[in-house]
Amino acid sequence: MSANARVNTVTETISRESRNVQYPQKNGKVQWISEIFGQNVFSLNEMSKRLPKPIYSTFLKQIRGNEIIDKTTADAIAHAVKVWAMEHGATHFTHWFQPQTDSTAEKHDSFLTLKSTFRGGYEETTALDTFSGSQLLQSEPDASSFPSGGMRSTFEARGYTVWDTKSPMFLQEGPHGTAILYIPSVFISYNGEALDEKTVLLRSSEILAKTTIELLDLLGPVNEGTTVSYHSHHVHTTLGTEQEYFLIDRGLYSLRPDLKITGRTLFGGLPPRHQQLEDHYFGKIPTRILAAMSECEMELYKLGVPVKTRHNEVAPAQFELAPIFEEAMIAVDHNLLTMDVLHRVAHRHKLKVLFHEKPFKGVNGSGKHCNWSMSTDTGENLLEPTAHPETNYRFLLFLVAILKALADHGGLLRAGIASASNEHRLGAHEAPPGIISAFLGDHLNDVLDSIEQDRPLKKFGSSEFHSVRVGGTVLDLKVATLPNIARDLTDRNRTSPFAFTGNKFEFRAVGSKQSVSFPMTLLNTAVASSLQYINADLKKQMGDKKFASTEDKITIIKKYIKETKKVRFEGDNYSEAWAEEAKKRGLPNISNCPDAFAQLQDKHNSDMLNKLGVFSPGELNSRYHILMEKYAKDIQIEAETLRTMVVQHILPSTFAYRRELAETASLLKSAGSDSSPEANALNALSPIVVGLQKAAAKLEEAVDEFINIEDIDELGKAAHDSLFVRMEETRSYADKLERLVADKHWPFPKYAELFLNI
Fold this sequence. Notes:
Largest sheet: 9 strands, mixed
CATH class of the largest domain: Alpha Beta
Shape: globular
Strand content: 5-15%
């Protein structure tokens, strides 16, 4: 790789034209979003039009969990979806699933079938397009080729993908104007163990729904502060995932082996101007980026993904896309689809999307803020405080259940967000630290404190609070032409890993590259476990009563307010003072992945996950091995990539510059001129070059030692304590050389070019 290639590519990006895509038109006018929304989805509405009423009715019972799908129903649905898909140009179908790789997987099969008939003693073959119920229901990928944590060996290859009937099938664009039918699926082994992210998420959702309905039944048909007048028969979690990402020019990306191989820059210094002026956040979206965003949104609308918001993020070249809330099962699928579509559309615009949590050192990284709540089958949000949360005992019981989940299993939730990439971001004064705590806001905190202390709420206009009313106060801006502004009840806390934001919790610590399935699985299960304790205590408190009385509810709420007080924190989560305070409270401060993954094997956590049936002991053990092995391999790949770039590119470029300086100094000296400037520059380089050579050699030794480690626990520890440390040392020298070596000799695009050439 040469400096000329870098300069030429930088120049090319300046003249690169934006891709022009025609937005869907109708009668010469741009179609409304609602007109194209979901047009590539085989929705329940589409299904109802194409299926006989008895078949459709049977399917509705199946997705509610009341019946098992039979062959007749499966065959009818398979035929209907085949006809619909082929009408839209589909030639192939695929079972789309979520292996434990933070991505998706698919194997395409055509609708083609051959039928043989014999005519006059000769065999005649006829081509048919068919799709059977059995083909719809399951397929068979090679289970030994996906992460299994030892549950599957190479000679035990059989695994199954099984259609997730609650997640609608959809079409994706194929080559040459064709399309592919996608069938959302779970992925299990021959023996039925979960090999994917979705199976355990479905299990966790079911146990959470069961324990939630049990509590609602105990509370009775009418609850103070709510409008509920009948029982709920189904409860589901809702989720909205805010996706942050970087976009850079693909030509420049192609000249950075570290970005291509690892997803992040392994060296590189900040330019004079980056994010310190705080002018990129919510700034004007660059034209080329807006074109890519718009095309991405157009595709997502057709796929039924309710994307709502787009904007510049804090760091240069960083952006965000956020959807409307949905049922969590669908929201997870849609987030993975969003990442896939962003990747493909960026490619068309000669851009590269980076989902790594920290692709550039020194500027903000990316997260995936998961806005989580629970809803009944009537659409009522169980985390809605209503106008009087102090007497909305149903809300308060669910609130303390969630706080108990954090108090009892905070370390487990920390394990759910741990990865080699997110480790660079957590606690880096842009993302929450490794201490799991909850932010409730002044008002809810006072509600809980007042119940615990048997005192009235603080009144409106007190010195502590401006208001205790939902909706907060009204702000008068003292400008006649501006309307009064309704201020929210509480401020936001961007430093909190788990913040209450009005009627939901925002789990801010999830990494941008992660599938949200695993952290949501752990959260669902921990809350379900808490609800079991609350339900048991409430039953005991109720005695022979059919429904809990107000006194019963208050007694249980008060008990759990006291038990969970340690996880409530309203201040700056980045501060050292909080780390000290959290230690006093007994909250774990887990700063690295090996320690986080160990939480999966902690008896308190593993017993809970096994008892509720979300993970079998074997599945949980395999999950630990998969996560630890992936972490170690990620760092090993980074280490080997960095060493290669240093030895094959950075050092040779530096040598060329040193030779140029030496030759110039020699010529000047022979001509009788002062050569000290060149000599000084040469002397400044020498100790750094020597330091880089030594650091690269130590890094290579560390890699050689690392690859001989067999024990999985030692492997993870060595990755963190040895490889990562050696990499940081090597990088420090490389970054110094980038600042000193003449620009014309430097082979790799610099941060200034990667940030600005979009």
